[in-house]
Amino acid sequence: METPEQIKPRLEAAVPGAKIDVLPNDCPAGERSLLVDPAHVLAVAKFLRDDPQLRLDFCSNVTGVDWPDIVVKSKFKKTVVVDGVESEIEETIETLRSGYLECVYHLYSMELKHGPVVLRQRTVNRDHEAPAVSLTPVWRGCEFQEREVYDLYGIRLEGHPDLRRILMWDGFKGFPMRKDYVPPDDFEYEPTPHDEVLEQAKKHYPPEVKA
Amino acid sequence: MPPKNYEILPKTSETGEPIGELLEISMGPHHPSTHGVFRMDLVLDGETVVKLKPVFGYLHRNHEKIAENISYLGSMPYTDRLDYFCSMTNNWAYALTVEKLAGLPVPERAEYIRVIMAELTRLQNHTCLIGFFVQDMGALGTPLMYAFREREKILDLFESVSGARMMCNYMRFGGVRCDVTPDWLAQAKQLVDGYGKFLDEFEALFTENEILLARTQGVGVLPRELVVSASITGPMLRAAGVNYDVRKVDKYGIYGRFDFKVPLGEHGDIYDRYMVRVLEMRESLKILQQALRDIPSGPVMDPKAKLRGFRPKAGEAYGRIEAPKGELGFYLISDGSPNPFRYRVRPPSFINLTVLEDMCLGHRISDTVVILGSVDIVLGEVDR
User: What is the ipTM of this complex?
Assistant: First the structure.
């Protein structure tokens, strides 16, 4: 099977204007993934499905990933001259990498029995309205899984035929799989509270009221 | 069976108004045929289904979020609760993915034990499924009790090796938790030798049964193209004639060493799904015979495997196995900390439900029960 590096130039030739990156993967199995911009992901997906060498007709897994804002610390060495003596010092620079949401697709071929090719698309930011594109028109199997991505991560997948909540109930607020999700304070009376339950109980039942 | 050439859309007048009334009913969440808490929003024209929307999530506990907040090993008992019929294969899928993520080797004997456990799981899952499935068609009690009798023998084997009938929590990263005894292997051999006879008896009840033929042949047909595009896996896929078995394709573990066939259906209807499962059990017996014959001695855990303080390097891995219900996958992203950054389960029965509406349209409401039974869902896995 072709490696992502081999697929990339063919994709760029077939889908003009598509921004495609190959993301590294340091784990021993090392499945590198193709990062495609949301504007071209539908055309890229169609190409991957219909290309006679790839024939990725089976979209096995669809999932979301939440990457919150993080501070990336990068160290680099710098030569400074102090009192005429050259010395090397290490300097740390902190840069804020703004967060984004990501959709990951694991594609296999049932016809040619190879895979996986990992396809990713990223939203611009972690806003609920940040768009991504649904691939349900290409692979029907994405339908429920993309609904789940919408339900738990809040990625609005444009072009999905029936984008509703699937596991949580209608009217639920928030997206539980996000890293910054805070569960609601649904405290119930506890006769012998302890540890964090005690902390929570103090908010609900002030001790002086009881006595 | 539905009348031929039945118009799926309700009959409409010239102005486009439907003639007669459509009835909207909610089947479930506590309907006995839904195998748990599962609901179908049905729109009926008389007794014929014109629209169906599955509704689930009643057992949702956000399994993936729980796993992100505990260590890698801590999720192992939680995977038992996904598909509570097949905890051994759930354990294996998770262990396989973590081994892929961290590059851990597995000793030979442990690989054989895993294969034995997985195939025993497949036997008991398919046996029970057929029991439930004919119960949905009105064969109350007896076949299900026969199935449960055989299942209990397998669960006794699981219990004697892992301490629990259903929540086995048996596999570990780099092996299995404890070794099996020669006595256990002899018992398993005895069970496998006798299982073919039970299957013959079981099949004599159903395979040529007039009621089963009438209610399953030509019902819930899934065409080949739709099955592939809709990511259907497992016996449902193979019943439609697509030769795709992860055991053959990926050859994970040591499946490349065994001689077995992949049974395929032709029509993609419920009867083919039933038949594929029966034949798959017979192939499982072949694998078990070979595994029990060839199992070597040796350690069952990789000596370098570290259970406590396990921190794989940053990276990601997707691992999958052929679970009894279809392709069970795990997707893990590690950021180098003791907890997974992202933990995802690809549940086969959840995705197999995608085409429930396509299978049921145009059939009677009593057929939806049989069709749902043939999908083989477990709500612990669908809802997670």
Answer: 0.85
